[in-house]
Design brief:
Largest sheet: 6 strands, antiparallel
Number of strands: 17
Structural class: alpha+beta
Strand content: 5-15%
Oligomer: single chain
Radius of gyration: 24 Å
Length: about 625
């Protein structure tokens, strides 16, 4: 895991200087070492390739980057891990001759031998750039599901590519227009990273599952060079059609995904919430015989309605280990004071105080010498794990006039799940009554029409599951986990996003994911031997949760009210109606209405983020 900065410009000295500025702004992504290579281009421009290294595999200087091929033709900068590098290396015995090597050397030699086709062999997470000094091309690529970030900006002859937006801001020396197409959906419904656009006009995400071969002997926009190298089963028309996938096959592939993600030359930890997903990872690690060298980290709270401590303890007892716990019950003011710091780390406004609890958990992990953490992200999006998916599937059954199955599932979910009693009307509005949410918001009338994103049930259940995986849910979660962890120089690994597992889970019909009135039904069966029944049969779902709603109405009401009454930048930019914001928040605090705590928190987070970046923003 590392940080990248690639710059093309007309002045050699300036290119070198801006690469260093960009790397300096994201130093925590790779504090172990850094390197820069400058190249003359045939059209008179210059290329700078910069890299901050976080040493995970092959800790020696042999793994340093930028890495240049033995003949000097190719230079690679690469962020991430290719977990099956040992298997790929067996096909490169003529090139990989050292007894000790890491995945970077394998990635370099693979790209040289197979070109972009090498990407289909990689099992992992990455963003990379490979310069060919003979063809004068830059191969840019990002992993299948966008686990590793990559952004770019183009203006005339200048190109800036980097692992984080803040690196582009540092290198560009200009002011930016705020992108309201991104800001408004964030404020109204919490949408982030659902498109390739960012909070700044002209700065874009490089798309997941794509590569580009950019000619550097002339100016050609990146988006004209894009090629897709992988498609999700939904895109191929094969989602939800395989009745033959068994729990045993799922368990075997899941355990193998965890196995290759335990490859590391540094200490490894696990984020344990007490739910099915993270507990399953821990169970797989136990089965693989690696639990004794594992550090387990968990967030807990004294508020029993949102703390998962009993389940965390049950799973820890099941595998005979002791987790490290972070109790956030008594620290709402401390968390509030950290919003600006977390925003800067996040490269944008955070979604809630739970992000800060996660940020602090990363600090604990760092203090214990952990540089790699496994996480359960990605399971809910693929296995119907969210409450909304139950409703989406029931709606599909209704549209199909499958009333018998519909009624049977309603009865079963009523008996064996807390889905129906835990659902709030406000949550439903977010998905099926977008206009209601926008009309009741404090967004300025001028910009209310901007939020036109449809996050409703979709045409089919399979489509809606894919949309959460590709746009509406997972990208935002991956963004936050990457930034919160990399701010503390920690790499996050995501076993549920092994592309082999993603393809298998997508092919499973929806009815198998909801059988018996449980979400993730077939996966729960697959994990029977790895987790205790008290967890596999859980009716509720919490995750890394904290009592944010109570804090927003009580302990934090004063500082938030003070902020909303101040000279707000988001009001000066015309984004919100400040009087309406103040009035709605007062009603919320007095429990006169339920606007939802998240919408007010997002106003706080956006205001604090824009203030911290005001020197980069056009008035």
């Amino acid at each position: 895991m590392c940080g990248l900065s690639i710059i093309v410009g007309e002045n050699r000295e300036n290119v070198g200087r801006t690469v260093r500025l960009a790397l300096s702004s994201i130093w925590s992504r790779g504090p172990d070492s850094n390197g820069i290579v400058l190249k003359d281009l045939p059209d008179g421009r210059f290329l700078g390739l910069g890299h901050n290294r976080l040493s995970i595999l092959d800790l020696s200087s042999h793994g340093a980057q930028p890495m240049t091929s033995s003949d000097g033709r190719y230079t690679l900068v690469y962020n991430g891990e290719v977990f099956n590098y040992l298997e790929i290396a067996k096909e490169l015995t003529d090139k990989i001759t050292d007894k000790e090597f890491g995945d970077t050397a394998v990635v370099l030699e693979s790209l040289i031998k197979w070109g972009p086709r090498a990407l289909n062999r990689f099992n992992g997470m990455w963003s990379l750039a490979l310069y060919d000094s003979v063809q004068h091309t830059l191969l840019i690529a990002r992993d299948r599901l966008g686990v590793k970030p990559l952004y770019y900006f183009e203006s005339g002859p200048q190109i800036i590519i980097a692992s984080e937006i803040k690196a582009i801001l540092a290198a560009s020396n200009r002011k930016w227009d705020i992108n309201l197409q991104t800001v408004i959906p964030y404020l109204t419904r919490g949408l982030q990273d659902n498109t390739l656009s960012t909070y700044y006009k002209e700065i874009y995400q490089f798309p997941p599952a794509h590569y580009a071969i950019l000619p550097l002997n002339r100016s050609t926009p990146i988006d004209r060079c894009l090629n897709k190298y992988w498609s999700h089963p939904y895109e191929l028309g094969t989602a939800g059609i395989d009745d033959n996938v068994t729990p045993e096959e799922i368990a075997e592939l899941f355990i193998d995904s965890v196995r290759i993600r335990l490859r590391s030359d540094v200490p490894i930890g696990l984020l344990l919430s007490g739910g099915v997903d993270s507990s399953s990872i821990l169970g797989a690690i136990k089965k693989l015989g690696h639990v004794d060298n594992l550090t387990i980290l968990s967030v807990i709270s004294d508020d029993k309605t949102c703390s998962e401590e009993p389940y965390i303890d049950e799973m820890a007892k099941f595998v005979n280990c002791t987790p490290v716990k972070l109790n956030v019950s008594n620290s709402p003011h401390n968390l509030y004071e950290q919003i600006e710091e977390a925003n800067i780390a996040n490269d944008g406004p955070i979604g809630g105080l739970a992000n800060i609890a996660h940020y602090n958990l990363m600090n604990i992990a760092k203090s214990r010498g952990i540089k790699v953490l496994l996480t359960g992200q990605g399971a809910d999006e693929q296995l119907g794990g969210y409450k909304k998916f139950v409703y989406f599937y029931l709606m599909q059954l209704y549209r199909q006039h499958n009333y018998i199955e519909l009624l049977g599932l309603v009865v079963k979910f009523s008996l064996f799940s807390n889905i129906f009693c835990e659902t709030r009307v406000k949550e439903i509005y977010r998905y099926i009554r977008r206009s209601k949410v926008i009309e009741s918001s404090f967004i300025s009338n001028t910009y209310r029409s901007i939020d036109d994103v449809d996050i409703g049930p979709g045409k089919t259940y399979e489509q809606r599951e894919w949309l959460d995986l590709a746009k509406f849910s997972l990208p935002s979660l991956l963004h936050s986990e990457d930034r919160m962890s990399m701010a503390h120089s920690i790499e996050m690994r995501v076993p549920f996003l092994d592309f082999r597992l993603v393809e298998m889970l997508a092919r499973i019909p929806a009815y198998k994911k909801f059988a018996g009135g449980q979400t993730k039904s077939i996966f729960r069966k697959a994990m029977n031997e790895l987790i205790p029944p008290i967890i596999s049969n859980r009716k509720d779902k919490k995750g890394f949760d904290i009592p944010e709603s109570d804090w927003m109405r009580n302990e934090l009401a004063e500082p938030i009210g003070k902020l909303f009454s101040s000279n707000m930048l988001i009001a000066n930019l015309g984004i919100i109606d400040q009087d309406l914001l103040i009035a709605q928040y007062k009603q919320y605090v007095n429990k006169g209405t339920d606007f939802g705590d998240k919408v007010f928190f997002r106003a706080v987070a956006l205001e604090k983020y824009l203030r911290s970046c005001s020197n980069h923003i056009k008035p």
